[in-house]
Model the fold of this input.
Amino acid sequence: MSNAAITRLLEELEANRAMFAALCLAVETRFKDRAERDAWCIGDHVAHLASYDQVALHQLAPGVAPPPSDDDQDADAWNAQQVRMRVGRSRLSLVGEMTQRRSDCLTLLSRLPEKELRRAVWFPGEARRSAGSVPLRLWLERWSKHDMVHGRAILRATTTLGPQSDFENWLRDDPVLEALDRSAATQHPDGES
Done:
């Protein structure tokens, strides 16, 4: 991954977080709604992203940012606990937390030497891929779509924004997002995240 690729990744992460934050603000009165077959309400998706960037901070700088849990390989269980701990927090508090954490991540990523992108990090697995070590570059490329995955779940839970909204356009025609969405549907056919 070249410096130009890092720059594109930084821009994508920043733009996706800005769109996700705007979406969170647009669904203010619908925070308890959930999509059909989704175990999480809109607020849970926001809480998930508010805490998940702590995992990213550790992936980017393991010596600087502590692992989110004692079991570095069980970030999903740690994050599920974090979602439960955030129940009842205000939408603005969660948006503020996720905005600050993303800013911290972008600062670390912008300073990351290119050779670090080859460093192995833990990937928890999904329907099509087993858990194991992957290059940081690959982990970052998938993480750059994380806000979009949860943005799509939120749009499924609310019909008030309409199919031609800027949010729908943000999520349209992204081949990686489509693949991740298909994978999530296969992994969680009952709708759980």
Observations:
- Residues 3-187 form a domain with the Four Helix Bundle (Hemerythrin (Met), subunit A) fold (CATH 1.20.120.450).
